[in-house]
Design brief:
Elements (H helix, E strand, L loop, with lengths): L7 E3 L1 H14 L2 E5 L10 E4 L9 E7 L8 E6 H6 L3 E9 L13 E9 L3
Length: 119
Protein backbone atom coordinates (compact mmCIF):
# COMPACT_ATOMS: atom_id res chain seq x y z
CA UNK A 1 0.00 0.00 0.00
CA UNK A 2 1.43 3.40 -0.92
CA UNK A 3 1.52 6.47 1.32
CA UNK A 4 -1.33 8.19 -0.56
CA UNK A 5 -3.88 5.46 0.18
CA UNK A 6 -5.67 6.16 3.45
CA UNK A 7 -5.65 3.16 5.77
CA UNK A 8 -8.96 4.13 7.37
CA UNK A 9 -12.02 5.84 5.94
CA UNK A 10 -15.50 6.60 7.22
CA UNK A 11 -18.83 6.03 5.54
CA UNK A 12 -21.21 9.02 5.60
CA UNK A 13 -23.30 7.21 8.24
CA UNK A 14 -20.23 6.77 10.47
CA UNK A 15 -19.31 10.45 10.08
CA UNK A 16 -22.88 11.46 11.01
CA UNK A 17 -22.79 9.30 14.14
CA UNK A 18 -19.39 10.69 15.12
CA UNK A 19 -20.78 14.25 14.89
CA UNK A 20 -23.65 13.22 17.16
CA UNK A 21 -21.36 11.49 19.65
CA UNK A 22 -18.93 14.41 19.63
CA UNK A 23 -21.77 16.80 20.53
CA UNK A 24 -22.59 14.57 23.52
CA UNK A 25 -19.12 13.49 24.67
CA UNK A 26 -16.48 15.83 23.22
CA UNK A 27 -13.27 14.61 21.50
CA UNK A 28 -13.37 10.97 20.40
CA UNK A 29 -11.10 8.04 19.63
CA UNK A 30 -11.46 4.53 18.20
CA UNK A 31 -9.63 1.38 19.22
CA UNK A 32 -9.72 -1.75 17.05
CA UNK A 33 -8.38 -4.78 18.87
CA UNK A 34 -9.70 -7.73 16.89
CA UNK A 35 -10.13 -9.55 20.18
CA UNK A 36 -12.83 -12.08 20.97
CA UNK A 37 -15.27 -9.60 22.50
CA UNK A 38 -15.37 -6.89 19.86
CA UNK A 39 -14.26 -8.72 16.71
CA UNK A 40 -14.70 -6.40 13.76
CA UNK A 41 -16.32 -3.64 15.81
CA UNK A 42 -14.08 -0.67 16.53
CA UNK A 43 -14.77 0.69 19.98
CA UNK A 44 -15.47 4.43 20.26
CA UNK A 45 -14.45 6.22 23.46
CA UNK A 46 -13.98 9.76 24.67
CA UNK A 47 -10.42 10.69 23.57
CA UNK A 48 -7.92 9.35 26.10
CA UNK A 49 -10.41 7.15 27.98
CA UNK A 50 -8.93 3.98 26.49
CA UNK A 51 -5.29 3.74 27.47
CA UNK A 52 -3.08 2.87 24.53
CA UNK A 53 0.44 1.55 24.88
CA UNK A 54 3.31 -0.14 23.10
CA UNK A 55 1.06 -2.87 21.75
CA UNK A 56 -1.07 -0.30 19.86
CA UNK A 57 -0.49 1.63 16.63
CA UNK A 58 -2.00 5.01 15.75
CA UNK A 59 -3.32 4.14 12.30
CA UNK A 60 -5.14 7.36 11.43
CA UNK A 61 -6.31 10.76 12.56
CA UNK A 62 -9.72 10.97 10.91
CA UNK A 63 -11.00 14.36 9.83
CA UNK A 64 -14.76 14.64 10.24
CA UNK A 65 -16.51 17.73 8.94
CA UNK A 66 -18.12 19.54 11.89
CA UNK A 67 -15.77 17.96 14.46
CA UNK A 68 -12.98 20.38 15.38
CA UNK A 69 -10.30 17.85 16.25
CA UNK A 70 -9.29 14.62 14.50
CA UNK A 71 -10.79 11.34 15.71
CA UNK A 72 -7.82 9.08 16.39
CA UNK A 73 -7.99 5.48 15.20
CA UNK A 74 -5.81 3.05 17.13
CA UNK A 75 -5.34 -0.63 16.36
CA UNK A 76 -3.55 -3.39 18.21
CA UNK A 77 -0.14 -4.05 16.70
CA UNK A 78 -0.97 -7.72 16.06
CA UNK A 79 -4.25 -6.85 14.29
CA UNK A 80 -2.45 -4.20 12.25
CA UNK A 81 -0.04 -6.86 10.98
CA UNK A 82 -2.93 -9.14 9.95
CA UNK A 83 -4.79 -6.29 8.20
CA UNK A 84 -1.71 -4.50 6.79
CA UNK A 85 -2.82 -5.13 3.19
CA UNK A 86 -6.31 -3.68 3.68
CA UNK A 87 -8.11 -0.37 3.83
CA UNK A 88 -10.43 -0.27 6.83
CA UNK A 89 -13.86 1.26 6.28
CA UNK A 90 -15.73 2.28 9.43
CA UNK A 91 -19.48 1.94 8.94
CA UNK A 92 -22.62 1.88 11.11
CA UNK A 93 -25.16 -0.93 11.25
CA UNK A 94 -28.33 -1.44 13.25
CA UNK A 95 -28.02 -3.56 16.36
CA UNK A 96 -26.58 -3.56 19.80
CA UNK A 97 -22.84 -3.14 20.01
CA UNK A 98 -20.57 -3.43 23.01
CA UNK A 99 -21.68 -1.71 26.18
CA UNK A 100 -18.24 -0.10 26.34
CA UNK A 101 -18.54 1.79 23.05
CA UNK A 102 -20.25 5.19 23.07
CA UNK A 103 -22.80 4.34 20.37
CA UNK A 104 -24.28 1.38 22.33
CA UNK A 105 -27.32 3.32 23.68
CA UNK A 106 -28.17 4.57 20.16
CA UNK A 107 -29.34 1.15 18.85
CA UNK A 108 -26.52 1.02 16.30
CA UNK A 109 -22.93 -0.10 16.29
CA UNK A 110 -19.78 0.74 14.42
CA UNK A 111 -18.43 -2.00 12.18
CA UNK A 112 -15.12 -2.25 10.35
CA UNK A 113 -15.29 -3.49 6.80
CA UNK A 114 -12.11 -4.06 4.84
CA UNK A 115 -10.99 -3.87 1.25
CA UNK A 116 -7.80 -5.44 -0.03
CA UNK A 117 -5.54 -2.77 -1.49
CA UNK A 118 -3.20 -3.44 -4.38
CA UNK A 119 -4.70 -6.79 -5.32
Amino acid sequence: MDDTTPRVELTPAAADLLRQLHAQHGPLMFHQSGGCCDGSAPMCYPEGEFRTGGSDVLLAELVVEGVPEPVTFWISRSQNEVWSHTRLIVDVVAGRGSGFSLEAPEGVRFLTRSRVVGA
